[in-house]
Amino acid sequence: MNMLTRRQALHQLGGGFGGLALVHLLATDAAADGPRPEFNGGLHHPAKVRRVIQLFMNGGASQMDLFDYKPELFKRHGQKFDPGDGTKVEAVTSVPGNVMKPPFEFKQHGGCGRWVSSVFPNIARHVDDIAFLMAVRSKTNVHGPASYLMNTGFVLPGFPCMGAWLSYGLGRLTDNLPTFVVLPDPRGLPYNAQGNFSAGFLPVLHQGTIIRPTSPTPIADLRPPESAKYITPASEADGRDVLRAMNREHADRHPGDNRLDARISAYELAARMQLAAPEALDLSCEAAGVRNLYGLDDPVTATFARQCLTARRLTERGVRFVQIWSGAGGPSKNWDNHSNIKTELPAIAASTDRPIAALLADLKQRGMMDDTLVLWNTEFGRHPFSQGADGRDHNGQTSVQWMAGAGIKGGVAHGESDEWSWKATKGNDVHDLHATVLHLLGIDHEKLTFKHNGTNRRLTDVHGHVIREALA
Amino acid sequence: MRRGTLQILAALLATASVDGAEPLPPAMNRPVDFIRDVQPILSKHCYSCHGEKKQKAGLRLDQRPDALLAKILKPGHSDASRLIVLVAGADPDARMPPDGAPLSRQQVGLLRAWIDQGATWPTTDGDHWSLRPLIASPIPLSGSAAVANPIDAFILAKSKEKGLTPSPIADRRTLIRRLTFNLHGLPPTPQEINAFVADPAPNAYERLVERLLASPHYGERWARHWMDIAHFAETHGHDQDAVRENAWPYRDYLIRALNADKLYARFVQDQIAGDALFPEDSAAVAALGFLAAGPWDESSQKDIRDDTVDKLQAQYIDRDDMITTVFSAIASTSVHCARCHDHKFDPISQKEYYGLQAVFAGVERANRAYDPDARVARLRRELQQRRADIVAGRFDIVAQQTIVTNWEKGARLMRWKTLAASATARESTVEPRGDGSFFFTGTRPEKDTYTFVATTVSAITAIRLEVLTDPSLPHHGPGRQDNGNLHLSEVRVRIGDGTGKPISIVSAFADFNQAGWDITRAIDGNPATAWGIYPEVGKAHEAVFVLKETLPTGTRVTIELDQLHGGGHLIGRARLSATGDANPMLNASPLPQTVTAILNVAADKRTPEQNKELTKHVMLTRLDAEIAALPKPEMVYAAASDFDTLGSFKPPKGPRPVFMLKRGEVSKPGEAATPAALTMVKGPSPTIKDAASEAQRRAALALWLTGPDNGLVWRSIVNRVWHYHFGRGIVNTPNDFGRMGAAPTHPELLDWLAVWFRDRGGSLKDLHRLIVTSRTYQQVSADQPEQSRLDTDNGYLWRMNRERLDAESVRDAVLSVSGTIDTTMGGPSARHFTLSPGVHVTPVVDYQKFDLDSPGARRRSVYRFIFRTLPDPFYEALDCPDASQFTPVRAGSVTALQALALLNDRFTVRYAEHFAARLERESKDRNAQISRAYERALGRTPSDAEAKRLADFATRYGLPSACRLLFNCNEFLFVD
């Protein structure tokens, strides 16, 4: 195939040029299947949101120790856990222990009176801007499949994650930076490693671009290796000219193949990205007040503060989707608190509390909340009974997730778990969360599909309902 | 209020005209396809009452309702069709569906349009192109010079129909570059190009084709395609992305099989059930890596508790991947769509899907031992058969009499003398007991090493370790773990006090081995494996270690017992003895207590049962020594029914029960599934000789798939091969020949090729030869605007397609052009990263720290190690897909990040330097260097202007900078 149809061009070039820019570049037909200006860049209806920052708490944040306040746990602390309906109580890695109360104090906050534990004093101040999903079910109790589900809508590897779907569906807002950026925890990649940021069967260009702000090479291949001393700014500039001339002559000898022209443009875009990316990652120009707000200079919060502030700068400059990870895969230094809730949870929570609160305040102050969505997610919840003496095992039956920003009704708590926070009673599926995010971006989750191996695949598989109760 | 059946029937059959009703929604103004547009509406809104389970009013809409069709539909007149009146709510007395949301106006509009357009309601079976019987289409007559072989006749006939004319034949320079990349994934060398361009022979092209097909590079290139289809990688994927050390033999199988031109049916059979169908071809066991190629959920399969829903779900999902692999790759069929419900578009029922699950219910993905040497395999099989016979008591006791008598003499001669040793332990307290044994006590550590030191009082050839019971141990021992077990990780024997020369242990025997924890694991040098005795606790056990050399009298010897498994799996009480027996291999194996008891009875007093038991023991001892002497088997990560238990991941011991899962949920099992294939394929059903044998289930499926009547399979492979030659299949969805897949552009050609290929025996090389010698393949790729207008994406092949090199070809071309490529074939994969332990199972992988000049760096890309969740960014930038997904078609994207990777990746920069060094070695003259650079990288000499431009650049910034540009130019990355 040497001719790209417009649809193919959108698929193949989206990451290089993307949505609106591509239309200009190729000067083809109207954006019949791309983002529509009259929908504020949405595909199927008007979009409230144009960019997303997703905060992912890797390991399974303990909902009843953070947001899902259950007095029953305090009353029955130490008693044998018996849900009373004859259901078999099982835990995936351990033998179920006795009921365990949260080792933290709970208070009501904000005008909405939302319960938040003492672990999150700063986030607690923003509850009136947040819509809580109080009972979100997973399909599994195991990290790998559950992380895949939360990221891709499937419990298996090989499916595109939400950021990739958005890149595919909506294209990019800027030519100078990647569309979908992932900021991993510098201590390590999450469970499933890069599988969570994969484009799956979508064209590979829609996968997350990993940025490591503290690394000497924050973006792979942005610059030539240090070892090649003969590559200088002058040689780069002249080299681009020679390469353009070679490619131009070749394209002229082979007319009618717009991939050849696209590659010529790709090198121009690459040069622009080389300038734009370091500027976006340079936090030195941020005011002292902003640095302080995020906790950039406090060793407890410095790492996550840098991720959050970087995310704000990237979205400000047109990155469509930024995913920030808290916690690496593995037995500790994440949200997978099997051994001791009392010591492990406050430690990881404190590293994120102030930066997240700062991000919400900063976005609001800059007016970015008008078209930015902030998501706080985790792959599943934890059990109301103990694992060993003081820990909690994985619980796919309920979890708390939250959303804030454009299109969100603040102060809402939608859904409900049982008296133990063991099982969702009035709950949502992970697919509902995905459907809602797509809805806010102007996408009907049933209509954004990609044909693969005989099936029209969607982010929401064959499920998903938009959670209207959480929407403004 | 529920209505009676009669009422509904009456309502249904009433006349369509209804007075005073709302106007019907308008019919949609576009062509409507029943399968795509109408069936989903019926499926969602009607099947629950008018489907397979219920047929209210006798109406069934999941198949063509022939008897009632005329009553509900008036083709061409949707406004007069009862169906429309009911679903539009136009009859106040009857509405369909009676409960729930009514159909939207758009849905009614679609149904109306369908009826107005003739209400075509295809029967679901058999009439789809891919399910029709395979019949060779007649070759169109042409008499044109543009026909080199039948392929051209088919292509030309279709072109004529569309008003297209074929393009001219490409020049030889273009042809050799195209053909070499296509068959080898490598560029031709300047010498090869010049030789071909200058070859005066009329069959120069055919000779080139033969040379390329005969080269082993052919198998390397085409195996890589099959690895895409099989979604092969060398780690598990998921959150515990552990390395599969033994996955590579499957890749080597593919390369060998393709180079040997293994016939296609056999190639498929090997990969699904070669072990069952061709036990004599032992090397082909590696082919079963196909079934295990995909991801595996280690945490759900191995680490979580056995009785959980998550575990069961993981097993179903794992089998789903095997089935999907087989049917996507080999039959281009999306059976996986029938996991939660009957297939929406193709005639595949959920029941059939679970029948396929049952076919694979007896295998898992695991390391599987095999003997690549067929003679060893045969010998091992025979010995194991003999062993089974002996165990079952099928032997002639009289014939063995002499052997047993002689053995008994040896056994009696065998003297175990307690070693007068001293014992210490790193952690535990040691208490000597009066009988030469030692008791290990104190606070139980997680792990420990016990050390015994003794001086031999006679020459010794073997050492015996007795682990003994004690009332104070849990379950009386002999281990200190709560369950009475112990794990002996490693045994070491040294001369002197522990730092002296190590003495090898050649073999080890124990009176009892825990499953997966046999005694050989205590001498395998791997501290992660160990000997265990569970569940035979509360009894003494013994293990014998045969030394490689005889230790003379008076040797000071140190024996160390590592017990590193953790969890307090430690020996409670132990005693060491030694023997000087000349043949300890045969005589020294520990005697089971039953045998010792028999030996204590005088020979003439023994009962016939005792004699038989003793004979059995002797025969087994001798046989086991023979088996132990065979070369060690190789391992391959493959489908396996028997393997070592790993945590809670255990061999299935025969097919596991499989149930039809309602909505695909393990919590909703329906009826038990029995192994079966697909009824939509005409021809004989698979015959399973013995359904209790999991191997027979797979064998039956493999034979069914490769039967001559299975049109899906023969069409699938010729289309795949076509796809990899032209960049586009005759069917553009190579993994989906169903109704939702693409239709063939040249159905007659597809069928002709399939029949031709099948009837000639299924030689892939024959098929390549036929395709690449067609005139169609040899056309130029140049665009022609007037023809483009008729056929924009060249579906009718009026020219050749220009292809962007895939990631592997780019890398291999860079290596080849720079003169650094290492063409070593086979063996463990080259790891183009550094590997260090991660915090959990998944290691830390760093592609940036890898030494690009280390030997493995220069091997062909097919030999690189593929990490599922930590992929190589350079390959990703060039569209190398997620290795957890099936990839029938590679993308050829153009992006800014790709430009950055080609410019700046350490690999291209370093190998541009190597390329420059090579050019400088070959000539000191700048112009000659540039000319040579063009010839090597682009297969042609530069024009004067081109040469001057690049030479000037090289002079200003160095030759490596110029070489880097060549690796980035379009001419390098695209093949005409």
What is the compact description of this entry?
The complex is a heterodimer of chains A (472) and B (976). Chain A has 472 residues and is of the alpha/beta class.
Q: β content of chain B, as a range?
A: 5-15%
Give the biggest beta sheet of chain B.
Answer: 7 strands, antiparallel
Main sheet specs of chain A:
8 strands, mixed
Radius of gyration of chain B from CA coordinates: 36 Å
Q: Record the strand order, biggest sheet of chain A.
A: 7-6-8-1-9-12-4-13
Overall structural class of chain B, as computed from helix and strand content, comes to: alpha+beta
| Series of H and E elements of chain A | HHEHHEEEEHHEEHHHHEHEEEEEEEEHEE
Name the biggest interface: A-B, 97 and 108 residues
Tally of DSSP helical segments of chain A: 12
What integer is the average pLDDT of chain B? 90
Q: Quick one: overall form of chain B? A: globular
How many beta-strand runs of chain B?
20
Percent range of helical residues of chain B: 25-40%
Helix share bin of chain A = 25-40%
Poorly predicted runs of chain A are 1-32
What would you call the shape of chain A?
A: globular
Protein model, in words:
The complex is a heterodimer of chains A (472) and B (976). With 472 residues, chain A is α/β, with parallel strands linked by helices. Chain A has helices at residues 6-13, 19-26, 63-66, 71-75, 143-152, 162-170, 233-253, 258-281, 288-294, 302-316, 341-365, 430-440; strands spanning 51-57, 106-109, 114-117, 130-133, 136-137, 180-183, 209-210, 321-326, 372-378, 381-382, 394-395, 401-405, 413-414, 416-417, 424-426, 428-429, 450-452, 455-457. In chain A, strand 2 and strand 3 (114-117) form a beta hairpin. Chain B is α+β, with helices and mostly antiparallel strands and 976 residues long. In chain B, helix 7 (172-184) crosses helix 8, helix 10 packs across helix 11 (248-259) and helix 22 (711-726) crosses helix 24 (764-772). Chain B is globular, with a radius of gyration of 36 Å. Classes of the chains: A alpha/beta (472), B alpha+beta (976). At the A-B interface, helix 1, helix 5, helix 7 and helix 8 of A face helix 13, helix 14, helix 27, helix 28 and helix 29 of B.
